[in-house]
Amino acid sequence: MADEMVRQAQRFVNDVYGSRIGMTVKEDGFTKWEVMYALTRALQWQLDISPVTNSFGPTTLSTLTAKYPKLNFGTMPSADFCRIIQSALYCKGYDGDGINGAYGPRVQAAVTKLKEDMGVGTVFPGSDLTPKVFKALLTMDAYVNVNSGSATVREIQQWLNGRYIGRRDFFVIPCDGHHSRDVAKSVLFAIQYELGMADGTATGVFGPGTQAGLKQHTVSLGNTGIWVWLFSAVLALNKRPVDFTGTFDSSVGSAVRTFQSFAKLAVTGDGDFATWASLLVSYGDQTRSGEACDGVTKITDARAATLKAQGIRYVGRYLTALSTTSLPEKPIQPGELQTIAGNGLRCFPIYQTFARDAASFKYETGRAAGYAAMNAARDHGFKNGTRIFFAVDFDALDGEVTSDVLPYFKGIVDSVADAGNPYLVGIYGPRNVCSRVAAAGHSTASFVSDMSSGFSGNLGYPLPEDWAYDQIVTRTIGSGDGLINVDVDVASGRDTGQSSFDPPRTVVPDTRLAPEVYPALELDVGKYMESIGFPNNGGTRDFTHERCLRTTVLDHDDVITELSNRYAMRKALIQASAYWEMRHWDAVDDAVDVLVVAYHDPQPGLPPPPNAPRDSSTGIAQIFGATAILAWNHCITKGVASGPIRDTAADDDIYAAWRQVRNDEYALRTVAMIHIWGADGKPGGQNPPAGETVLRPIALNYTEREIFEILRRYQGWGEEAEKHAGQRMALYHILEKYNGISRHL
Question: Does 238 lie in the same domain as 217?
Fold first, then answer.
């Protein structure tokens, strides 16, 4: 709900400082970072700092400290300076006395209350506003419990502020009852200070000095003092049911044993180094051994022997890869699963392609990922019931989890469900991402990327309750032929991979679609298209799902199979492009086609209609005459097709090609020509400013990146082409599923 006093604060900063600080804010009555940035800039302007920035950094703090170490009624430099403080107080939920420019009793009481809520009231008594408190005032941090925050966590936050705020590099942390990145770092600072590290040496990083110091501070039953306070704090911050206490009693010991068992540590009941480490940083004690590993190197007999000698039982390997040249052994290699099983190891599959930024995660790309992973799992021979870990390999912020990652996993779950749930869905990613996807019901176990300790989704979050594998360190082990580099993973036992496999499906040419799979194919494609807004009855478009699928898949299966075999091109590339385009055919296309006919073949005695186009996307595959000419010319010149060379500048040639692509069979043949032309970089075509890259010649073992590029290039480039290619990837993989079944019957 909008707050009128926040609105007045926004109006003040706009009216007084907007032209001075290079920004204005929306006057909507809602507190947000934009307002805090503007107030920070206003303060910098008052301090004669140039240029002004959004950051309350070292320069701002040192300048403020030098000029005004204590701001109060007697030291306030101006009314507008005071109004900055009053505006910030309102944005924080405190009384700013009407933004009247006076540091009067109400403002003094608000500042006193603010410091009390922060836990620094004893260190900074009275109503003076000190520089570090001012810095904290200009953030979005809360100093009261919010969103059902924990009273124990808030007590810890206030204690940390009160005890360490006098240290140079320690700043006020939130007191909102929630663990966070800032709180986690503040605990490391606290430990370093108690170890005797000087300002400048203490960095808040879990480095060698901190680790060495903690090894000298095991706490156990009956201990009291500062190290128990700190240990109980990190237990509570990891959501263990303990009080914040300075006495290591039986309840603390019980919580420690439970945590150690959960995290697969030695269950000693003591706060030893391994336990400190697991509570403080996501990767914990990196000298630990793990029963699992994952890597991008083929497991040979010699490497399997190395792994077994290290006590490793479970091996994570990738189902697919985006490149055939970079990390060539990243995907499971032919015969590798049999080698793994033959050496008494078990394998758990990982699916990762476009997984390194939020833009890669959408519902439709999740649908594509689900089908692609299932197809690859079948190809490799993974049996039903195997858990596939789908990767989220970037530092996803909590908002991005909501807006992007959760819809993506909903797409995965939906595609797996449509396939009859042959496989289980797991997730690989940071702690917060894993926990939230699990809470949404979209995963059954987590493979936690805890080596990325700096990820915002790891720092300040506990180990997910459903963790199966915990990735803690990269090691190179073995020697000679057995040398291998792996990520070491602690295993919980929730997932044990697989030790036996079906015969792998080899890369073979496509065949005609088996009649018995067509009903299921029609059902699956229909479900997917409806899930992205294309009703099976056609909706406002011209053709139904059933008609489009029969036209572009079943009725011309002989032609598509022939093209596939001739050009080593998966049938699904042709089918997906044609079906997608036919599903988009609507009345506007019909109207434009009429105008093209009128341009080239006007009624006797009548001129063509005004602005009539000479070309349009037409036919079941929605191909322009000019596009058909360019693609066919390229393929004819290349020697992979035959026919006349045509000129896109000649109306007669455009019209001849345009009429040909309105024939269904010719349109499908042209789709294949466009794909070959696309793989070669579409020479002579309308390409993006940097041009289209030349891809590997189309092959039956195209990677997902290559498939995406071919589908995208069919449409062109730009945001819409990227979006539609992402949607067509799922369609491709559904079609490929049933083509794959047919060719392996």
Answer: yes
Asked whether residue 455 falls in the same domain as residue 529, the answer is no
Please count the CA atoms within 13 angstroms of the CA of 454 that sit on its side-chain side: 2
Q: Are residues 693 and 625 in the same domain?
A: yes
Read off the pTM.
0.90
What would the pLDDT profile of 692-730 be if each residue is shown by its tens digit?
999 999 999 999 999 999 999 999 999 999 999 999 999
| Total tally of structural domains belonging to the chain | 4
Cα separations in angstroms, 491 against 43, 355, 438, 470: 52, 23, 18, 6
Is the same domain home to 177 and 252?
yes
Calculate the CA 735 to chain-centre distance.
26
Give pLDDT tens digits for 387-400. Answer: 999 999 889 999 99
Q: In the Cβ-directed half-sphere of 326, how many Cα atoms lie within 13 Å?
A: 5
To which residue do tokens 């170890």 refer?
195
281 Cβ contact partners less than 8 Å away, ≥ 6 residues apart? 206, 453, 459
Residue 286 within a domain = no
Alpha-carbon Rg for the chain in angstroms: 32
β-pairing verdict for 484-491 and 467-477: antiparallel
CATH number of the domain that residue 212 is part of: 1.10.101.10
Q: How far apart are CA 266 and CA 234, in angstroms?
A: 18
Q: Which two tokens stand for residue 677?
A: 């032309």
Tell me how crowded residue 547 is: count the other CB atoms within 10 A of its CB: 14
What is the C-alpha separation between 206 and 229, in angstroms, rounded?
A: 19
* Contact (Cβ atoms closer than 8 angstroms) between residue 252 and residue 236: no
pLDDT category of residue 355 using cuts at 50, 70 and 90: low
Tell whether 230 is covered by a domain: yes
Q: Are residues 475 and 369 in the same domain?
A: yes
Range of the domain at 61: 4-140
Residue with tokens 């997932």, as numbered in its chain: 495
Question: 671 and 537: one domain?
Answer: yes
Q: Are 429 and 448 in contact (CB under 8 A)?
A: yes
| Same structural domain, 485 and 541 | no
Asked if 356 and 393 touch (Cβ cutoff 8 Å), the reply is: yes
Q: Would 507 be classed as within a structural domain?
A: no
The whole-angstrom separation of Cα 17 and Cα 83 is 12
